[in-house]
Every structure is written in C-alpha cells, then in structure tokens.
Specification:
- With 242 residues, this protein is an alpha/beta fold.
- The chain has 2 domains: 127 residues, Rossmann fold; 93 residues, OB fold (Dihydrolipoamide Acetyltransferase, E2P).
- A 5-stranded parallel β-sheet has the order 2-1-3-4-5, with helices on both faces. Strands 10-9-8-12-11 form a 5-stranded antiparallel β-sheet. A 3-stranded antiparallel β-sheet has the order 13-14-15, with no helix packed on it.
- The longest helix is centred in the C-terminal third of the chain and has 19 residues.
- The radius of gyration is 20 Å and the shape is elongated.
- The mean pLDDT is 83.
Length: 242
C-alpha cells in the first residue's frame, strides 16, 4: 500500500484534496491511503522523517517561515525515493518546484480530472519502474509495497506473509519466484524466511531482531547461515565505507 501525505494550510482545500484522493483510490481500485492530511508544514516534515511515506502532495506558499520548496529540499536530503507533487496557484514557483525532482505540478484550482490523471500516471510509473525495485507488486490488485518498509517475508504453508513497518500482507505466491524478483538486500536466512538486511536491528544466537516495538524476530537456518552472513557482512562493511 502506498502512503500519501497531504499538506496545505487552507483547510477547505485540504479536505477537498482528501475527498478527491479517496474517491480516486476507490474508483480505480488503487491500493493507497492518506496517512496524514495536515495544514501544518512542520507537522508534515516531522511525520515524513519518522514514518514510511511514498507520496507527498504539497502546497508551496504557506503562511509561515517555511515554504513547500524548503520542505521538499529537506525531504530530498533524507529520502530520494518519495514522490513529490506540488499543488499551487503561484506559477512563478514552477522552475523551483521541478528542481526538487518533482513528479508533477498541479496548478490550483485543482480539478478531479487533473488529480486523477496524475495519480494514475504515478501508479503506472511505480509499476513500470521494475529496474529500481523500490516497490514490489504482491498480487493482481495493484497492491504495492515499498521494499524499504519490509522487515522480512515469511512462508507459511501455501501463503506468503510480508511483515512491514505499517502492516502485514498475506498473499498466495511462490517463495522461489518471489526471491528472484526482490532487490539484492533481501536474503534468505531460513527455509521459511527472507529478510531485508537493511532493517536488521541485531542478531543474537542465530536469531534476527528487527523493530523492538513489534518484537519481530526470525531464525537463521543452518543450511542458509553461511551465505546469509557473507551477504550481511559485505553489506555492513559497504555501509561503513560510505
């Protein structure tokens, strides 16, 4: 599921955005949700820094000492993958907005038709962008998961369970086929587990720990142990040298 954040200091426009976006999700069977809708740019920035966010729809000219361009630039310094869509009536900001690697620019007043076209193009862009592997399509209903949000993937009988930062997803799929489609930071550590080594918190006695708040853990199997630690140690050393 794609998490959207909306930020506009005009409450009327913010509510209209939210209603239109929910309707677009429903009418087009898109797996998206509004994680936050706020008139406060500082609240939006704080939320994005500590939560998994895929798309930000942002006004540019706020009645405060921070602008939408400022927010976008700060977000880009910590998250280069989030999709940013600017919505504003100030056309003079157009060039500055695109310098923030903006996905689209929506001039106000925003119509349902224009917003829907942008959202559909965004979902198509994510699905077609297989080479980057930022998002994983897990079923035939346009359900997309940000790969960075996945702690581990578990095989349970004929089901595959994705344990993520914000939800759990259960689908019918082949474990081996899935592994071939995942980014290189996903490593099989057990006959029943594939882990995202970027999200490992610690390893104790061949037990991998992830988010302490959720008590997520999974075991390292003897058959997979050697390869797992080779990949894990190489990734750890690579991160140290960055």
């Amino acid at each position: 599921m794609l998490n959207f954040v909306l930020c506009d200091d005009n409450i009327h426009i913010l509510n209209k955005f939210s209603n239109m976006l929910d309707l677009i999700f429903t009418n087009n069977d898109l797996d998206g949700q509004i994680a936050l809708a706020t008139p406060d740019p500082n609240e939006a920035l704080s939320y994005i820094k500590s939560n998994s966010v895929d798309v930000l729809i942002l006004d540019i000219n706020f009645k405060s000492n921070i602008s939408g361009i400022d927010i976008a630039n700060e977000i880009r310094s910590i998250n280069k993958q989030v999709y940013i869509i600017f919505a504003t009536g100030h056309l003079e900001y157009l060039i500055l907005a695109y310098k923030c690697k903006t996905f689209d620019y929506l001039p106000k007043p925003i119509s349902m038709e224009n917003l829907e076209a942008t959202i559909l193009r965004l979902f198509d862009d994510i699905k077609d962008n297989n080479s980057k592997k930022n998002f994983i399509k897990i079923n035939n209903k346009n359900t997309l998961i940000n790969a960075d949000s996945i702690y581990y993937i578990e095989k349970s009988k004929n089901k595959i369970i994705f344990r993520t930062t914000d939800a759990e997803y259960c689908v019918s799929s082949s474990f081996n086929k899935l592994k071939a489609e995942l980014p290189s930071n996903f490593v099989r550590c057990h006959k029943s587990y594939i882990v995202n080594i970027d999200n490992i918190d610690s390893i104790n006695n061949d037990v991998i720990h992830f988010d302490k708040a959720n008590n997520y853990t999974c075991a390292i199997g003897q058959v997979y142990k050697k390869n797992f630690f080779e990949v894990f140690n190489n990734e750890f050393n690579a991160n140290l040298n960055k």
